[in-house]
Amino acid sequence: MENKLQEINSKINKDTVLLFDLDGTLVDTDFANFLSYKNAIQNVTKTKNEIQYNPTERFNRSKLIALMPNLTDTEFGNIIKQKEENYKEYLSQTKVNTEIAEILIKYSKTNTTVLVTNCREDRALTILNYHNLTDKFNFLLFKQIATNKTHINKYQKAISSLSLTAQTVIVFENEKEEIDDALLAGIPIDNIIKF
To answer: By the 8 A CB rule, do 155 and 171 touch?
Structure first.
């Protein structure tokens, strides 16, 4: 890890802009997310549906549909709503990635730091506030939903909306699809740090 941190530090100069993903990168939120879904499923369906936690994949809406294909639209909507509402109860189950947080804290004093996440604003702020990280960012960019339901490249959106130069950006990301989006946005592969 020490070598990786030295390598990262060697890439950063005064003009470097650091873009941080939230879920799974800066903060491990998977278990809290799972517990929140599990609680919502049990409350809405009035069952003790014992879904099992899988640490290798994030439980999401697609997994919910696959697990419970007979949910009505109302039940599905109520589960999502309750999941968001009860998430705060599970914040203690989230964990900061200390190596990335140290980089964020160190460079928040000298460089532009940006949260670039597909997380909804209220949940992202709840997580950042819980871990005292909110004030370490110059900009906070949250999930964007396209009107025609098409995928939005969060890195392209960040570069465009903040008038950044892709070659001066370093990205901290954990998901392959998002890394692919960073590459499509013109960010050099050597500037994408996978955690």
So the answer is: yes
Q: How many domains does the chain have?
A: 2
**Closest CA relative to residue 116, chosen from 89, 78, 156:** 156
Amino acid occupying residue 62: S
Specify which residues 140 forms β-bridges with. Answer: 115
111 and 49 share one domain: no
CATH number at residue 15: 3.40.50.1000
Of the three residues 73, 92, 111, the one that is the final residue of a domain is: 92
Torsion sign (Cα): 106, 107, 109, 110? positive
Same domain, 118 and 162: yes
pLDDT by residue, tens only, the chain of 195 residues: 677 778 888 889 999 999 999 999 999 999 999 999 999 999 999 887 778 999 998 999 999 999 999 999 999 999 999 999 999 999 999 999 999 999 999 999 999 999 999 998 999 999 999 999 999 999 999 987 656 667 889 999 999 999 999 999 999 999 999 999 999 999 999 999 997
- List the domain range (segments joined by +) for residue 60: 30-92
Which of residues 42, 72, 92 is at a domain's end? Answer: 92
Within 8 A by CB and 6+ apart from 194, the residues are 173, 174, 179
- 110: which 2 tokens? 């000298």
Distance CA 73, CA 91 (A): 28
